[in-house]
């Protein structure tokens, strides 16, 4: 199951996903701070990829593995300091990392 939990408005998030041709199971937009944690818990997210230190904290608070990606405004050091278990340079690295760490479930 793939879920997007973002600070962007739902309509903007859905538009971005369509633009890049991605289909997801659920979108929780305009989620910041505790609201992001609530959505992660509600969806039973086990791994959360984010681009801010606050995303790393939200993942940890929700019991998910925090994965940082440096495609946003924060570098690897900031994401690690925020609690990232691993930091990727690009989302393109996620599948290989997830497979290597056993995060992917068989379909």
Q: Nutshell version of this structure?
A:
By secondary structure, this protein is α/β, with parallel strands linked by helices. Helices cover 39% and strands 17% of the residues. Helix 2 crosses helix 3.
- The overall strand count is 5
Radius of gyration: 13 Å
- Described by the principal axes of the CA atoms, the overall outline is globular
Average pLDDT over all residues? 94
The structural class is alpha/beta
- Estimate the strand proportion: 15-25%
Gap between N and C termini: 9 Å
Question: How would you describe this structure to a colleague?
Answer:
There is one protein chain. The protein has 107 residues and is α/β, with parallel strands linked by helices. The protein has five helices and five strands; from the N terminus they run E-H-E-H-E-H-E-H-E-H. The strands form two sheets. A three-stranded parallel sheet has the order 3-4-5. Helix 3 links the parallel strand 3 and strand 4. It is globular, with a radius of gyration of 13 Å. The model has no long low-confidence stretch (mean pLDDT 94).
Topology:
Elements (H helix, E strand, L loop, with lengths): L2 E3 L4 H10 L6 E3 L5 H9 L4 E4 L2 H9 L3 E5 L6 H6 L4 E3 L5 H8 L6
Parallel strand pairs: 1-2, 3-4, 4-5
Protein traits:
single chain, 107 residues, alpha/beta, 3-stranded parallel β-sheet, two-stranded parallel sheet, 5 helices, 39% helix, 17% strand, globular
């Amino acid at each position: 199951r793939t879920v997007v939990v973002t600070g962007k408005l739902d309509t903007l998030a859905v538009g971005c996903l369509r633009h890049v041709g991605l289909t997801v199971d659920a979108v929780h937009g305009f989620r910041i701070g505790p609201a992001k944690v609530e959505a992660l818990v509600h969806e039973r997210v086990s791994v959360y990829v984010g681009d801010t230190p606050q995303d790393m904290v939200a993942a940890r608070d929700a019991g998910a593995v925090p994965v940082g990606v440096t495609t946003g405004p924060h570098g690897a050091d900031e994401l690690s300091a925020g609690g990232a278990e691993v930091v990727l340079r690009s989302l393109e690295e996620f599948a290989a990392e997830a497979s290597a760490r056993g995060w992917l479930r068989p379909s």
